[in-house]
């Protein structure tokens, strides 16, 4: 096979692979990692690892997987415990995606289906234990680099929560009461996720006890009614 035929063959295979990507099933990596807003179910198959979503994210929430994570090297994801998605008004990450891995029909918060929040250990929740926020538990958040006014507002809210009853996961949720509220359990306060949770991960980021996880690519009904 000469060079010209080889190039034609590989180009055709790449185009075919891109085309059938829409019909490939959800992969193991898509079940493990929280993807940016607008991610389609076969995100890993369509992401071309260009990093455009990383470049335009104003909160630096989006990163690229590397060999340390063991799956899907080079595709974009969000580590909610480090920095959640603040659901930008214009979703610049979606607009920047050239491959269809992030659905351009995602134009408002109600379109976002990143996953759903899960309270991992309710006994360790500060609100449940009726304990105040301790400065040492939020020092990491307070020392983070600030990129914009909204992040400054989050930092100020965290700073103001010190030595007060904790409700950070509820008060800082960008979706609001439709996603998470403070409910009662055994007569104590306990955050409760609602149908409107989109899995942005801000609650996981700001939780002083770090006991909130996001179940990626899962719906509320799958987690709480399945």
TrEMBL record:
Residues 37-67, 74-107, 189-217 form the 4Fe-4S ferredoxin-type domain. InterPro entries: 4Fe4S_Fe-S-bd, 4Fe4S_Fe_S_CS, Fe-S_Ferredoxin, TAT_signal. Pfam families: Fer4, Fer4_7. Coiled coil: none annotated. Keywords: 4Fe-4S, Iron, Iron-sulfur, Metal-binding. It comes from the Bacteria. GO terms for molecular function: 4 iron, 4 sulfur cluster binding; metal ion binding. This is 4Fe-4S dicluster domain-containing protein.
